[in-house]
Specification:
Layout: E1 3-8, E2 14-25, E3 30-35, E4 41-46, E5 54-57, E6 62-67, H1 82-90, H2 95-105, E7 112-117, E8 122-126, E9 131-134, E10 138-142, H3 152-166, H4 172-179, H5 197-203, E11 209-210, E12 213-224, E13 227-236, E14 239-251, E15 254-255, E16 261-263
Antiparallel strand pairs: 1-2, 1-10, 2-12, 3-4, 4-5, 5-6, 6-7, 7-8, 8-9, 11-12, 12-13, 13-14, 14-15, 14-16
Helix pairs in contact: 3-4
Length: 271
Amino acid sequence: MCLIAWNWQPGDQHELLLVANRDELHARPAEAAHVWEGGHILAGKDLQGGGTWLGLSHSGRFAALTNHRNPDLARVGTPTRGQLVTGFLHSTLTGPEYLAHVAFDAGLYNPFNLLVFDGRQLLGFESRHGRTRVMDRGLGAVSNADFHTPWPKLVKLQARLGECVSAQDTGNRALLALLADKAVARDADLPATGLPLDRERALSAAFIATPGYGTRASSIVRVDRRRAGLLEASFDDAGRTGMCSGSFPLQGGKPSGETSNLTPPSTLLHQ
């Protein structure tokens, strides 16, 4: 997961609206979003590492992860960072409690940012600094640097999400259009993360399309007082491969006992 933006409105009827792109090698096997065995998690699944990049739980908990881009800090043989997302979704700990546990073991993993929502707080954890950040009300974003680092694609996506919110144009079609932006940044505005210039340029788009590597999933997450839902569009080298959505009904932050509803893909863009 390499680009996430959100509108966080605690206490409002529509508490959390979040959009995200997951960028990955196309050869890395993964399953699209689905309800996992046991019925408690709605997420895609990384079939190589066994975790996930973004998901919801049946109680309305949410978590997502981005890698911190620095080739000099990457190590082989480290645990999959996707288990940090599933760990939170399975947990009953509060966000601060869970991130305190994550901080203890963060050095075992390659660098990452972890975003969690426990039903009360939206929190971020930056493993390079061992730091938990409480997210303020309103707009926010993270890519492959620290939270709110003003990379061009982060600034652009956050601003365009804010425009959609202000215009009350937050339907799936409008939000997926934000995530489909393939425009690259000017060379003068590119971050310096240790990659060659042509690579930095290609990775500066919100939607990445390069041979062998690119945006594999575009996700929309909505959490309100009654329901937590996820819509996901999946992609391969040739383009979109499918779309699905699911949701968990909530009652006072707890599941109502209904089964998750998977919406036929043909209806999604009209919601």
